[in-house]
Specification:
9-stranded mixed sheet, globular, single chain, 17 helices, alpha/beta, 9-stranded parallel sheet, 27 strands, binds beta-D-galactopyranose, 683 residues
Length: 683
């Protein structure tokens, strides 16, 4: 990315999504001028515009985007050009209905909305290779272009695929994985309920079953298959663009959605990942929870997920107006200051490019309520003024470009467990509580954290930068992953595991072993018995040296089995009162903790305190729980972002003198952060 015009470690830039095809050509020049005046220097175009390049099969016309690109060049506007494969044209789906996605009953999703295709139809693949070849070979050398977006939001709207093309491809995927049906039958435990397959023709993508409960091992492989389909679809496009692009032009896509191994997608096809950030959905009629202390701060979780793929990344779509379709969703207009706050939230987490969605609100179609910066008329408004002010603020942040988010706490993840928790309700229940609980506690104790994915190439060296790693409910464990964790702990790391660890293999089958299976050695723990928290037990509490914490959802009843294993806490509720609930095992230079429950926010907060990682920047500043602290580390300076998510001002205390990047000058002592605003300090 060094030679790239965006996200190159040298600047932080703003842009906007634009649809030249939605407007009369006479508006283009003025629109571009106004964007540039506001400080928006890049536009993304063409992601849904297949018919403007290939109006009929095999007929190509380049004039439309040639004129737009020439104008952009003349004005000095940079362009991210997209492949248009998220919306196949009517001529295509009419002639080749096998290219359409289907619901679980096999009913096709017809032309008329978007993302109606499947990744596996050979004819769709061919037509996509063709349109990408035609677009890239024609447009790639245009000087206005600085990067390419593949498709638009892989797996948005739908992350499951049930067409006949998918079934055929699924069979190939399984043949490669298992070679013969015997192995597949074993892996999926098909002897249960007489599901044994005798011919590959009998194997399908999951279909409607009585009880709505398909074989879980089948489902787990199906999610792996979808990810594989997305990755190979994307790679075909990326390979073509790589042949034609100018030096320094990047390839990206915008996400993130379900059933995709984004680390693999990036490795094979992207230079950088971009994210579409709509934090105001925390205030959406359908999703508003007044009791949730995080609300739009939840988007920091999503940004941390993007960072786990691209340490420095981009935002392709940053919310800039009220949002909704005419059929669903109602999110209010950002209040004065919120666009600034959310832009800073993105930058704080590692975005060096932020592009707003969209320039002017569309006057027709499903997204007439998905507002852009401007309303239908295009008149000057408050949001455009705020964008202009944001651009000025971003100018003051240029030295932050390229710096990496700094975290000493990590939450371990892997796709096997992510997808298993989608298949398995018991797994999903504990995971949901702990992911939310850990995130909330980390936010409120101002602990910057990373998601850390366990991949084939992950080393204990790369884990070493984290003082504490939570791996909350790794139901599926592998010998490789546990070996890595043993090394991490032996070298001095602190590993925290929660209930339901280690009881499944890679196929999602339960292991015939004492639990926590492969994790027994590092944790020094044994689980002679376990249970869901019984509804009539209410809240199950644990006593940890006089501090009462909840062991939510599920309880592993523990026993120490290694010499170095100490019982730190015991249950105080239910028939298992007095039984160990938390064990700490000294292992080499480090310690592994096994906790018998799921982590609520209050429970996780106690772990952060006791493990000595809460408030890691308290030497420099004190801030209220309503503010987020995010940290980016440059070559010689540390940047502290303080984000105030409330409408009222927040009071913070700076205990040493720091540079105020946005306002200029040095400051210390008690200061106020305005409602919905951010402060950026350098030290
Ligand atoms: C995104 C998408 C945009 C736009 C917006 C509103 O998911 O990438 O194209 O549709 O949401 O739905």
């Amino acid at each position: 990315m060094e030679h790239s015009k965006l996200i190159n470690g040298k600047s932080i830039d703003l842009g906007v999504c634009y649809y030249p095809e939605h407007w009369d050509r006479s508006l283009w020049a003025k629109d571009l001028d106004r964007m540039l005046t506001a400080g928006l220097k890049t536009v993304r175009i063409a992601e849904f515009a297949w018919s403007l390049i290939e109006p009929r099969e095999g007929e190509y016309t380049y004039e439309f985007f040639d004129s737009f690109l020439d104008l952009a060049q003349e004005k000095g506007m940079q362009v991210i050009f997209c492949t248009p494969t998220a919306t196949p044209p009517a001529w295509l789906t009419e002639k080749y209905p096998e290219t359409l996605n289907a619901d679980m009953d096999g009913n096709l999703f017809r032309h008329g909305s978007r993302r109606h295709y499947n990744y596996n139809s050979p004819i769709y693949r061919k037509l996509c290779r063709n349109i990408v070849e035609k677009s890239a070979s024609h447009y790639a050398q245009h000087p206005a272009i600085v990067g390419w977006q593949l498709d638009n939001e892989f797996n948005c709207e739908n992350d499951t695929f049930y067409s006949d093309s998918d079934t055929l491809a699924f069979r190939h995927f399984l043949q490669k994985r298992y070679v013969n049906l015997e192995e597949l039958n074993k892996a999926w435990g098909t002897v249960f309920w007489n599901q044994t397959y005798t011919d590959w023709q009998e194997v399908y993508v999951p279909r409607k079953t009585n009880t709505n409960s398909p074989n879980p091992h089948h489902l787990l492989d199906y999610y792996r298959f979808i990810s594989d389909s997305v990755c190979s679809f994307a790679k075909e496009q990326a390979d073509i663009i790589r042949k034609y692009r100018k030096k320094g032009d990047f390839i990206t896509t915008n996400g993130m959605f379900g059933n995709i191994d984004y680390q693999r997608l990036e490795r094979e096809s992207l230079d950088v990942l971009m994210y579409d950030s709509y934090p105001n959905f925390a205030y959406c009629l359908d999703g508003f929870n007044p009791l949730d202390p995080m609300k739009d701060r939840h988007w920091s979780k999503n940004l941390a997920e993007v960072r786990a793929v691209s340490p420095v990344f981009g935002i392709m779509e940053q919310q800039s107006g009220a949002n909704g379709w005419n059929t669903r969703m109602e999110a209010p207009t950002p209040r004065p200051g919120q666009m600034t706050l959310w832009t800073m939230q993105s930058i704080a987490h590692g975005a060096d490019y932020v592009s707003y969605f969209r320039w002017r609100t569309c006057t027709f179609g499903t997204e007439i309520y998905w507002h852009g910066i401007l309303d239908y008329s295009g008149r000057e408004n408050r949001r455009l003024k705020e964008v202009t002010q944001i651009a000025r603020k971003v100018e003051a942040l240029q030295e932050v470009a390229g710096s990496a988010y700094q975290a000493r706490v990590g939450i371990l993840k892997d796709y096997d467990n992510i997808w298993d928790s989608r298949v398995d309700r018991w797994h999903e229940r504990v995971e949901a509580v702990s992911q939310n609980g850990l995130f909330t506690a980390l936010q409120q104790a101002h602990v910057p954290f990373d998601y850390v994915y366990m991949e084939n190439h992950t080393t204990s060296e790369s884990l070493k930068q984290y003082q504490v790693l939570f791996y909350p409910h790794a139901s599926i464990l592998t010998a490789e992953r546990i070996a890595l964790l043993e090394q991490y702990v032996a070298q001095g790391g602190k590993l925290v595991m929660g209930c339901r660890t280690g009881y499944k293999d890679l196929n999602g089958r339960c292991v015939m072993d004492h639990l926590p299976g492969l994790a027994a050695k590092v944790t020094g723990a044994d689980i002679p018995e376990y249970s869901f928290v019984a509804p009539d037990d209410g809240t199950v509490m644990v006593d940890w040296n006089g501090v009462q914490v909840e062991a939510a959802v599920f309880n592993d009843l523990l026993a120490p089995v290694s010499e170095n294993a100490k019982v730190l806490a015991t249950y105080v509720s239910s028939y298992y009162a007095g039984t160990p609930a938390l064990i700490c095992n000294s292992f080499g230079q480090g310690e592994a903790y096994y906790f018998g429950g799921a982590f609520t926010a209050d429970t996780a907060a106690v772990f952060l305190e006791k493990l000595g990682v809460a408030e890691p920047w308290s030497r420099v500043l004190d801030l209220p729980t309503s503010c987020e602290l995010a940290v980016r580390q440059g070559e010689c300076k540390t940047y502290l972002f303080v984000l105030n998510y409330l409408s009222e001002p927040a009071e913070i205390t700076l205990k040493e003198e720091v540079a105020d990047l946005l306002e200029g000058g040095q400051i210390s002592g008690c200061i106020q952060v305005e409602g919905y605003r951010a402060k950026v300090f350098a030290l």
